């Protein structure tokens, strides 16, 4: 049976269906995330290995080649590339597009775990992570305060600002740029070490093994099973200074007796300037699938609270890609409406038929608005590509309406 003919003879059901779809489409349009580009999930994994003081040639032979050989055998690998610098090796693994990202990450981790014993013992633990191909910050802020040092500003961003933003809906991560990280330097006295018959390597090994929190199984406490942990991590410099170092099987000395413990900051590896003044900046990244506009509103609200609680700190927005995203969104909406209006005008000018024009004018929103519900169900967002598709479809809808009228 011809569906158009059936709909004309039985108009109630189609009308109710279109009303329902219009309502669903309108509600979905109000809640669809607004982004610059569609959400892209590409199976790309990075493997980062660091070894302090290692030369690039040494890392390439002992680490990078082993990593590449292990990962090359993983099912679905399409391309391998590595970058080796002083003390760091980064291998990027590109999988075929049909491989799920979670599976790609897990398979890569399994491959690295199998050869972990063949890698040098002096390397840091390999970091296997998914590469975020959409990973551009949506907003960047500069933080300054006349009464704070650069180190204090760094701690303010890490402790206060990150705590205020992380965990908020739609916020992926916060990255600090510039400033300095806290470090504790232990300057051992060679004369004291020689007098006590202990080496700096032995002190370092003991600190690594004792200055850590360890799980110790489970036990019965007050009739209930509880996890047991041995708390050995030093919570402050004073506790670290009082750490006992074994000299022999029966002799121990405090770490402070072997040298000087200094609570300081590492040498900055990057810096940020705003109006030729040193600042600490931080960038905000959205979570996958989140609306850039909604995230920007959340960030603005949270930072207003931070400013109110810290009047001596100035937080300025210095880069805002959300502004361009929202501009693209409004421009695309305007283009879509203008295109629909001009299409209706063209139909009237060429057909000189009010009935045909009215049918075309009604067909456009009845076809476009329910599309937003389908987009919401499929996890799409309002972006340049989706609006371009809707705009192009407007012309096709007019053609279909004219054909339907003539038939």
Furnish the topology, listing elements before pairings.
Elements: H1 3-9, H2 12-31, E1 44-50, H3 56-72, E2 77-85, E3 88-95, H4 101-114, E4 127-130, E5 139-144, H5 150-165, E6 171-177, E7 182-188, H6 190-196, H7 200-210, E8 214-221, E9 224-230, H8 237-241, E10 244-246, E11 252-254, E12 259-265, E13 272-274, E14 277-286, H9 292-309, E15 314-320, H10 321-351, H11 354-377, H12 384-406
Antiparallel strand pairs: 1-3, 1-4, 2-3, 5-14, 5-15, 6-14, 7-12, 8-9, 10-11, 13-14
Helix pairs in contact: 2-11, 5-9, 10-11, 10-12, 11-12
Give a written overview of the molecule.
By secondary structure, this protein is an alpha+beta fold. It has 4 domains: 3-37 and 324-406, Multidrug efflux transporter AcrB transmembrane fold (Up-down Bundle); 44-130, Multidrug efflux transporter AcrB pore domain (Alpha-Beta Plaits, 2-Layer Sandwich), CATH 3.30.70.1430; 147-182 and 269-319, Alpha-Beta Plaits, CATH 3.30.70; 186-265, Multidrug efflux transporter AcrB TolC docking domain, DN and DC subdomains, CATH 3.30.2090. It is 47% helix and 24% strand. The chain has helices spanning 3-9, 12-31, 56-72, 101-114, 150-165, 190-196, 200-210, 237-241, 292-309, 321-351, 354-377, 384-406; strands at 44-50, 77-85, 88-95, 127-130, 139-144, 171-177, 182-188, 214-221, 224-230, 244-246, 252-254, 259-265, 272-274, 277-286, 314-320. Strands 5, 6, 13, 14 and 15 form a 5-stranded antiparallel beta sheet that branches. β10 (244-246) and β11 form a beta hairpin. α5 packs across α9 (292-309). The two termini are 15 Å apart. The relative contact order is 0.14.
